């Protein structure tokens, strides 16, 4: 080849590379300049490195919390990303008619398959709202009359499992068999959600094991998603050839792919039976127009998310109760009083949801547990409207430029919110939910406490669809466990192993000693 031609090609290649680098640098400088008025860790204005470290640490919630504690309720965590601990700002961003939209940068990391969405990952607001509308009745229990009885069935199975395999008899000197509460609670929640969603429980409680390896596969899938989110490589899954090659496949012999294949098989078999045989979530979805691959995506999503988040809530609450003897004794006394007053039926029958929710201390313990250690700590990133948004946070005015991503710091909004919950906000104290409502200021503060605490389940058009099922499980499970057994942490210095994957908790090795109550 002629040397002149080679030189021309090399010059053009050099110019193309230079132009690409210059474009990237100018773009990053533009991002830095647009958000220069927002404070944050030193590197966040020009690099995602700080954010990558936070996500890959498995403790992103603490990193986000520390940022808002140090730099204020609206701080910078990346070149084009802010985070807030302000409940008022987050309610404004998440309101029904808010111009903010979900950020693909975050939500698409949680997709099961490239290019396919469920109600959680859908970022088009109109499509999300339409899909959510089709599913609302099924989640609310309006078309699932057996919802509460299904929960009762599996709570009974949990109590039976604990009693028959792990608890030592009351007043016995015989040692109990150490029990991993983390796994047993996960068995409960996945059995409940598979039952109410598909009409058939997976059977983990009866087997006392992870049937088909679903829980292990779910954990692996979350870890992979978390790594791609932290490294910023999730976009690779959307590329034509690379995406399918690095994504789980339903042809896989094990892992997340096999779990998807099994779930699709169950959905297919259930679809062939129609909706007349049983009225449950699945039947409700179909009746309201969820079909085809959308149906699979929604069912698979509810099995994963519905199991993980509720299991995390129960385990968190039980850990904090076991770690606070005063709270433990007071809650158990209320439960015993309800049994004595025949508010709850004799065991092994399960307390009714309406009665459990009337127990004030139980309700306070559940709220306080989820407040001091939120069971979901997702960023839930949103994108500011094109024209930007002028907001006021804690009396200070800010302008959020159009296209800026804004996320939510659950740790600082709930656990560290001293202005609302008091100087001991990071302490587990259920009594903070009891105030003198005859004092207008206290009544108003309590109302605000409830409103902020409810943000754990989302807000506006983004409220968690599974909230109804989760609260039924929470009240019944905690009541029945403490009615029937006494629990003690086997190692208070290391009560569990905890890792944050994409804002969901991976909880392992929560070993307890169990004694049956007389």
Automatic annotation (TrEMBL):
The chain crosses the membrane at residues 12-29. One of its GO terms (molecular function) is iron ion binding. It holds the Pfam family p450. One of its GO terms (biological process) is methylation. Heme binds at residue 464. InterPro entries: Cyt_P450, Cyt_P450_E_grp-I, Cyt_P450_sf, Cytochrome_P450_monoxygenase. Keywords: Heme, Iron, Membrane, Metal-binding, Methyltransferase, Transferase, Transmembrane, Transmembrane helix, Virulence. The keyword Metal-binding applies. Pathway: Hormone biosynthesis. The keyword Transmembrane helix applies. SUPFAM superfamilies: Cytochrome P450. Its cofactor is heme. PANTHER family: CYTOCHROME P450 (PTHR24305), P450, PUTATIVE (EUROFUNG)-RELATED (PTHR24305:SF168). This is Cytochrome P450 monooxygenase ABA1. It comes from Trematosphaeria pertusa. The lineage of its organism: Eukaryota, Fungi, Dikarya, Ascomycota, Pezizomycotina.
């Amino acid at each position: 080849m002629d040397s002149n031609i080679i030189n021309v090609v090399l010059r053009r290649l050099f110019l193309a590379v230079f132009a690409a680098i210059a474009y990237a640098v100018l773009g990053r400088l533009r991002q830095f300049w647009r958000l220069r008025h927002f404070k944050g860790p030193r590197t966040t204005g020009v690099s995602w490195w700080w954010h990558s470290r936070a996500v890959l640490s498995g403790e992103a919630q603490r990193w986000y919390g520390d940022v808002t504690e140090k730099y204020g309720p609206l701080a910078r965590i990346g070149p084009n990303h802010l985070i807030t601990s302000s409940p008022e700002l987050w309610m404004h961003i998440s309101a029904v008619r808010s111009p903010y939209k979900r950020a693909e940068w975050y939500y698409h990391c949680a997709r099961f398959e490239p290019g396919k969405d469920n109600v959680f990952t859908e970022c088009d607001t109109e499509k999300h709202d339409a899909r959510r509308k089709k599913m609302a009745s099924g989640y609310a229990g309006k078309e699932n009359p057996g919802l509460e009885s299904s929960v009762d069935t599996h709570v009974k199975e949990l109590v039976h499992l604990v009693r028959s395999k792990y608890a030592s008899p009351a007043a016995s000197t015989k040692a109990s068999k150490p029990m991993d509460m983390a796994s047993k609670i996960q068995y409960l929640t996945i059995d409940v959600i598979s039952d109410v969603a598909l009409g058939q429980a997976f059977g983990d409680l009866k087997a006392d094991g992870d049937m088909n390896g679903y829980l292990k596969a779910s954990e692996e899938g979350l870890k992979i998603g978390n790594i791609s989110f932290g490294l910023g490589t999730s976009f690779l899954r959307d590329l034509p050839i690379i995406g399918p090659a690095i994504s789980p496949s339903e042809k896989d012999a094990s892992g997340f792919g096999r779990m998807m294949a099994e779930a699709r098989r169950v959905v297919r078999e259930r679809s062939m039976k129609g909706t007349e045989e049983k009225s449950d979530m699945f039947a409700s979805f179909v009746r309201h127009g969820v079909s085809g691959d959308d149906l699979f995506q929604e069912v698979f999503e509810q099995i994963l998310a519905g199991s993980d988040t509720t299991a995390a809530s129960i385990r968190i609450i039980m850990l904090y109760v076991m770690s606070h003897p005063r709270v433990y004794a007071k809650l158990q006394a209320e439960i015993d009083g309800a049994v004595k007053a025949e508010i709850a039926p004799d065991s092994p029958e399960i307390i009714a949801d309406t009665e459990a929710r009337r127990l004030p201390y139980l309700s306070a313990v559940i709220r306080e547990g989820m407040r001091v250690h939120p069971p979901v700590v997702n960023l839930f990133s949103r994108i500011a409207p094109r024209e930007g948004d002028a907001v006021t946070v804690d009396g200070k005015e800010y302008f959020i430029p159009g296209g800026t991503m804004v996320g939510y710091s659950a740790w600082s909004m709930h656990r560290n919110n001293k202005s609302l919950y008091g100087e001991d906000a990071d302490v587990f104290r259920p009594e903070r939910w009891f105030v003198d409502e005859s004092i207008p200021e206290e009544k108003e503060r309590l109302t605000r406490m409830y409103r902020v605490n409810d943000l754990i389940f989302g807000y506006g058009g983004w409220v968690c669809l599974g909230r109804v099922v989760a609260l039924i499980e929470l009240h019944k499970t905690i009541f029945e466990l403490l009615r029937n057994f006494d629990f003690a942490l086997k190692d208070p210095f290391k009560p569990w192993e905890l890792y944050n994957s994409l804002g969901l908790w991976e909880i392992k090795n929560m070993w307890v000693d169990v004694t049956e109550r007389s």
